[in-house]
Structure formats: structure tokens, C-alpha cells
Design brief:
single chain; alpha/beta; Rossmann fold; Arc Repressor Mutant, subunit A; 7 helices
Length: about 210
């Protein structure tokens, strides 16, 4: 396992995973000369250990055919680390493996031998696509948060309507005025009302 930094700091950090030391050294040298920060590991186990104790790389390049554990097992660990994009390398093209690589979310599936001149464009494309995926996930998360907030407010308004026998407009106004007077976010105040009703229901059922 090794870590080397190029003199240039303007490019991404890469984790290379390949059991063939010659291929590993050749790829690492070419990528460092292109300005990338390169870290190398020789197995899935080594890669997982490296990921646990080092800053996350911008991208991983993984050989599929390795002893003990296939490179196809590593993406599960990458997903747990806030989405690290990856490229698969293989010594032979197999439709079944290609399909599995796509299912796992590989940004590219490249057949060896491959030199850095061929690899670099694939890395650049993968990093660009990864940025798009990250933005999309962030937007989805923001949308889900907004939907959850709207749902909590709607439920809280329903609880207030039921408790005070008032209209939707009156309950909505009461909820917002109380949240404002208590200087609590509307969603947080609505959630507290829901939790209070849930606790009351549990006590009544006991």
C-alpha cells in the first residue's frame, strides 16, 4: 500500500486497486505525471482498510479480477462513504460482468491493458458525471426534506383543528403564530405537536 503526491495539486485524488504490482506502478506513475494524487492498494481488504483511515478519494479505479475478493465487492464500501465514484478495470470483457458493473453504478468499464493516456479521459468524464449525480442527490434530499416538513405542518394543523374544533385557516394561523411567538421553526413546532399527540395516545392506550 502506498501514497504518492504529485507536485501539481490541481487535480483529483485517486485510489487505485489492483493485485498486479506492475500494472499498479505503471498506472500510478502515469497518473501522477498528469498531476493526480494517487494512492494504491493491492486488494479489496487493503482498500477498505485504507478508506477507513484516510480522507476519501475523489474517485476509485478498481480491478475486478483479484484473488480472495472480487473488485465487484468494493462499491458497497464506497457507497457508505458519501458516494465515491468508481471505474472498473478487467482483463477480459464479459457481458455478465459488464451488466453487474453497470448495476453497481460504475462510471466506466475498461478492458486492460490500458495506459494513462486512455485512462485520463475516462477519469475526467467520470468525475464530471459524479458531480452531476451529487447535485441530483442533494436536490432530491432537499425536496424530501421540504415534503417531510409540509407533511408535519399538515398533520399538526389537523391535530389543532381536532383539539380546538376550529377551521383549517384558524388552525393554520394558530400554529404559525405560536411558532413565531416561541421563536421556533414552524416545522420543529409542528413536529413537537405531533409527538405530544403520540405520547398522549400511548398514555390513553396504556
Amino acid at each position: 500500500m502506498s501514497s504518492e503526491k504529485s507536485l501539481q495539486q490541481n487535480k483529483a485524488s485517486i485510489l487505485l486497486v489492483d493485485d498486479d504490482r506492475l500494472i499498479l506502478a505503471t498506472m500510478a506513475t502515469g497518473l501522477m505525471q498528469a498531476g493526480y494524487e494517487v494512492n494504491t492498494t493491492e486488494s479489496v481488504d487493503d482498500a477498505e482498510a485504507w478508506l477507513e483511515s484516510n480522507p476519501r478519494p475523489d474517485i476509485a479505479i478498481i480491478d475486478i479480477n483479484m484473488p480472495n475478493r472480487s473488485g465487484l465487492e468494493l462499491p458497497a464500501s464506497l457507497d457508505r462513504l458519501d458516494y465515491i465514484p468508481f471505474i472498473f478495470l478487467t482483463a477480459r470483457s464479459e457481458p455478465e460482468v459488464n451488466a453487474e458493473a453497470n448495476t453497481l453504478g460504475a462510471m466506466a468499464y475498461l478492458v486492460k491493458p490500458i495506459d494513462s493516456a486512455q485512462l485520463i479521459p475516462a477519469i475526467q468524464t467520470a468525475l464530471s458525471r459524479a458531480q452531476d449525480v451529487k447535485k441530483m442527490k442533494s436536490q432530491q434530499q432537499q425536496l424530501q426534506t421540504a415534503l417531510d416538513g409540509d407533511r408535519a405542518v399538515s398533520v399538526a394543523i389537523g391535530i389543532i383543528m381536532d383539539q380546538y374544533r376550529i377551521s383549517y385557516e384558524e388552525a393554520n394561523s394558530m400554529l404559525r403564530n405560536n411558532a413565531r411567538s416561541k421563536r421556533i421553526k414552524l416545522v420543529d413546532f409542528a413536529t413537537s405537536i405531533i409527538h405530544s399527540r403520540e405520547r398522549l395516545n400511548l398514555e390513553n392506550d396504556a
